[in-house]
Amino acid sequence: MAEVDAIVVGAGFAGLRALYTLRKLGLRVTVLEASDDVGGVWYHNAYPGARCDVESYDYSYRFSPELEQEWRWTERYAQQPEILRYIHHVADRFDLRRDVLLNTRMTRAEYDEAGARWTVTAEDGRTWTTWMLVLCVGQLSLPKRPDYPGQDLFEGEVVHSGQWPKRKVEWASRRVAIIGTGSSGMQMTPVIAQTAKHLTVFQRTPNYSVPAANAPVTEEEDRQVKASYPARRAQAANSPSGLGFMPNRRSALDDPPEVREQVYEAAYNRLGFGFALAYHDILLSKPANDTAAEFVRRKTAEKIRDPELRKKLVPMDHAFAARRPSVDSGYYEAFNRDNVELADLREAPIVEFTPTGIRTTAKHHEFDLVILATGFDVFTGSLFKPEITGRGGLTLKRKWANGPITHLGIGVNAFPNLFIVVGPGSPSLLSNVLVSTEEQLDWLATLIAKMRDEGIREFEVTAQAEQEWVAHVNERAKETIYPSAQSFYMGSELPGKPRVFMPYSGGVRGYRRLLHQCAEQGYSGFELRKAPAASRPRRQAS
Ligand code: NAP
Fold first, then answer.
1. pTM of this prediction exceeds 0.90
2. Taking the domain 2-38+96-142+378-535, which CATH number applies?
3. Is 144-205+325-375 in CATH node 3.40.50.300?
4. Which of 216, 293, 345, 379 is most buried by its number of CB atoms within 10 A?
């Protein structure tokens, strides 16, 4: 059994940053990565049209000024191959690959209370013992597949957007189905529409989308960003979402309609996600949100020629951004093409797959290729896949049976020396995840340095702190429009999942303050122990 100081699980953006940071502290680190290359979601989501909807310069690491200066982004919103090239560049430049074990899926992790160490087991039986266990498994890593009758009978090709095959997938001149109209479905639709013989998009819930306003990055823009990168990073860290946009301090209801129209027009044409901050209360108040929703609906409708299609594609049943909106490049316009059809599943649900296609209650559609853009088991799927057992034989899955319970989204009572990166209870998917990732890992580095210097063997969240944090997460969520919709923020993407609000909606800036406050107060909410808890009178694990 190999002995290390830290096992990091996952070699995506977060896992590589964890490796870099912990290695710098002098720790012996091993990264376990289930797939055959580094890159995480950006390795797997290689579907046509995949691109980031956070600006490239902000969706990149901040830890190395040299890296910031030498990397040249080509587009305002980078495409998946460019992002993957960047991740590979980072892995090579900082010599990270030598500590990454590919094709190594962690299946179990068990805490040894007496020794204050984790024993980690991989699918192939290899084991490690480690002081720290750092989970960088992503929130959108476990693809969700529909379960329609006859799915196995279909004789054409079936692929999932989140596990796009490494072989070439041909869609040109073929009859293609896309099931799902979240960000993935919306991004791939216009690209596939260009060359497919026929494309049918199966929509269950119409989603809001704002234009990406993508463009090549000019030399002058690149020079400008690089000349003031520290200020840009500071602005991102101090903004509510980590995107660098400061919200308009005015309420949407403060301005007369004609002024509001101008504000929305400017934001819509340039800011992508930043549109949601065109006024500070769009995400907080229904009447304010209504004005934004009405604007986006109108702009969307203008792009769609057929009035019947307009009615189906324009979302009417939820508040703007209560479910994650998309940032698209020509999604609605694609439906003006003769080779693109919308199958509205609310009107005519899928009955079954057949050997040649998909039957709905309205008709039989023939396909050569079916693309499942049906999303993921979000937030908890990848954390529950391995069996993680803390003190007293308590598994994470059992502990979280009624929803995730954490302190600050990073630690869990009864799971000492376990650190979750951008998991539930942290800003996570409500933020620029790179900003959140680096913030949390820098915080962890400071904690580990202190533990090492002071001979502390265990950190563990207190039961009281995590109860208070969950209550705080819920309180903040209630101040927003998020709980008003069925969404993966609420665990609604899968039947049987507890309906609780998963991410922290208090903002990146507010969260960062709380992290710092916790450290300044001697890691309030955490017990830091020089001797393992097991060597003291036993407490009941909650
Ligand atoms: P998603 O947002 O969860 O969307 C899944 C879609 O599939 C929804 O339209 C859903 O309909 C539909 N669906 C699920 N099960 C279905 C079924 N059985 N039958 C018919 N339709 C079904 O997933 P995603 O588009 O992959 O995006 C997930 C997240 O990944 C995004 O929200 C974003 O956070 C991230 N992402 C980011 C980018 C980017 O940065 N550019 C790109 C892609 C994805 P319902 O809504 O009715 O459930």
1. yes
2. 3.50.50.60
3. no
4. 379
